[in-house]
Amino acid sequence: MKFFIGVLILSCFWQSCTSTKADFKSKRIAEYTPQRIEQIMTSSSDAVERRTAFRQLLNNSKAENSAEKYLNDDDPIIRRSALYYLIDHHGEKSVDYMINATTDSSNLVRALALSGLTPYSENPSVQSAIDSMEQKDPDPNLRRQAAEINWPFKRDNKLLRDDPSWDYEIVTQKSIELSDENWKFTTDPNSNGHRQKYFDPLFDDSSWKPIKVGNWETQGWPGYDGIAWYRIRFYAPEKIESNAVELLFEGVDESGWVWLNGVYIGVHDIGTAGWNVPFRLDATKEIKWGQENILVVRVLDTVEAGGIWKPIIMEVLK
Fold first, then answer.
1. Which of 150, 182, 204 marks a domain boundary?
2. In the chain, where does DSSP find H-type helix?
3. pLDDT at residue 23, as a whole number
4. Which domain holds residue 44?
5. Does residue 155 fall inside a structural domain?
6. Are residues 186 and 301 in the same domain?
7. Does pTM top 0.70 for this prediction?
8. Rounded distance, CA 12 to CA 18, Å?
């Protein structure tokens, strides 16, 4: 009997507490009259109070005007909430707001803008905004996300040594170092060379400048950070009996995307730490034995020296 009485008392107490809590919340919300909200938003220095008031502001009939007004608020949480409201309620019609937000000082706001712009990445203005984030955003994670959104090329490049079905010793039949010279070079400050098909063997690179293996800063492009492209023509020998052909890049500062004979074969992109990390890409199917081959490398450098600064070696493996 005492047990049931205790349960009843606790139940009544819980209902009373719940009711009191709900009443308090309702009362607190009721206190946010339009005039009170306006006063808080313009005068209060309490961030929590302003954010609470702004949430109430988005629940009234003038929410859209309020969202637009507070896109430039000093509080990044309020700016983000305002942008989210516009994206959620207007979708593609909020693209201009999202584009403006890609240069916001807050990572949170820029991340939301980038996410919201993703479905509209074919829009030229959106492409431009995402390109700019890819090159200039101060957050490396957002730069990488922007690059992934804009990038149409995919390739799962598997090396012979990583093939689980290959359990034999790998022997290098022949190593052919590509020329340090004979490269053609151009910068790509707008990051749109891939759309202009710089990787295409038929692309006319006659206006590109000659460059040697080594950082580009010392060869006529001092202080340039961003995207640049390299192209070189080289002859492969007559076919050698082999199981694989791999291209060894001993040093690309700092990220590189690679095409051979117009075919995208892979990427080396681990951020700024990749500037002196060698990498390999399989080119078994793409190499043209006994013919001219065209190798194209798109390079991204974000700090200090940049470019293909160490040799590239074609390795014939068996």
1. 150
2. 2-30, 34-43, 47-57, 63-69, 76-90, 95-101, 107-117, 124-136, 140-150
3. 47
4. 31-150
5. no
6. yes
7. no
8. 10
